[in-house]
Design goal:
Elements lengths: L1 H17 L31 E12 L4 E13 L3 E14 L2 E16 L4 E10 L6 E2 L2 E2 L12 E10 L2 E10 L32 E7 L2 E4 L2 E12 L4 E3 L5 E3 L5 E13 L4 E12 L10 E12 L1
Antiparallel strand pairs: 1-2, 1-17, 2-3, 3-4, 4-5, 5-8, 6-7, 8-9, 9-10, 10-12, 11-12, 12-15, 13-14, 15-16, 16-17
Length: 304
């Protein structure tokens, strides 16, 4: 009970501190939450071959929008070298008198462990929405879509140097979505007039590097700080009201995020994790609606 109180107390302090960390921009197309790209995943199902995780999260987004979501995930280990993950996500957004909710994406990933230090991941993000949400028959910006609406290829590699954990990954869209938002469709008095247009949106890929270092602060509690740079490879594009395809200037570039993971092991089968993230560096233009000034996630996992 004392250990659990320590966990709850630390979680409360982190949540309280997040009020003072409000800053612009955490861009993430979803692949940084893939199980094999997360810190400490190597020991997640060593003693058991199956794991189920479920979680909820809350974040503050651009343009006075709040984002809420949830997910359920299944991890299966097939022998010592192979495994796979399946993850289903959902997202709700609210702000500026607009509220939306929907299923987001299905993540399907296969994992191969070459040895104790080196692992590879190949997978896909399958959209469960075409990013075509509208209000009063007028298309909404990407900030109110539950998914990017793109089918994406995901590849990654992880390596450990003593306790230091490194991950590099690529997420590349193979298709584009059906978003038709043009800011000019809204009156000058509307808050949505200031959003970036994404009609016939063409989103480029992202690469990430995650650097993590776990610290055992108690036999049941682990604190893992993590740095997460994500680079958007090219400027995104959209088609304006004159049917001209244009670049969205300054949408290429670096986002640097900081994460901290707090894990509490209830017993060998069950655990709770609090994960918080904030950005330090952001891209100037972020038309995809994925910006988070901070995000907090609570997860429960069970192994069997």
């Amino acid at each position: 009970m004392k250990t659990f109180k320590i966990f709850l107390g630390t979680a409360f302090l982190l949540l309280l501190q997040s009020n003072y960390l409000f800053a612009q921009g955490c861009s993430d197309a979803g692949f940084c939450t893939v199980n094999s790209f997360q810190p400490n995943n190597n020991d997640s199902i060593k003693a058991y071959h199956n794991q189920i995780k479920t979680g909820i999260f809350f974040g503050k987004a651009d343009n006075s929008i709040s984002a809420f979501g949830g997910y359920i995930e299944y991890n299966r280990q097939l022998g010592e070298k192979f495994g796979f993950d399946v993850k289903l996500t959902s997202l709700a957004q609210s702000g500026n008198d607009v509220s939306t909710f929907g299923l987001s994406d299905l993540f399907l990933n296969a994992n191969y462990r070459a040895n104790e230090k080196l692992k590879f991941t190949l997978g896909a993000k399958v959209p469960l929405s075409d990013a075509g949400n509208s209000k009063d028959n007028i298309p909404l910006p990407m900030d109110y879509q539950s998914s990017l609406g793109t089918l994406d290829l995901i590849v990654g590699v992880g390596y450990e140097i003593k306790k230091l954990q490194l991950v590099a990954a690529l997420q590349q869209p193979l298709t584009q979505n059906d978003n038709q938002f043009l800011a000019s469709q809204y009156p000058a008095s509307s808050e949505l007039r200031g959003f970036l247009s994404t009609n016939k949106f063409k989103r480029s890929g992202d690469v990430l590097l995650r650097i993590s270092y776990p610290l055992m602060i108690h036999s049941k509690i682990r604190l893992t700080p993590s740095l997460l740079p994500i680079y958007h490879l090219k400027n995104d594009r959209f088609t304006n009201q004159n049917n001209e395809e244009l670049q969205i200037n300054n949408s290429e570039g670096l986002t640097l995020n900081g994460n901290v993971y707090l894990d509490y092991e209830i017993n060998r089968r069950n655990g709770i994790q609090l994960n918080m993230g904030v950005p330090f560096i952001v891209r100037k233009s972020r038309p995809d609606g994925l910006t988070r000034s901070f995000i907090a996630n609570v997860e429960y996992r069970v192994k069997f």
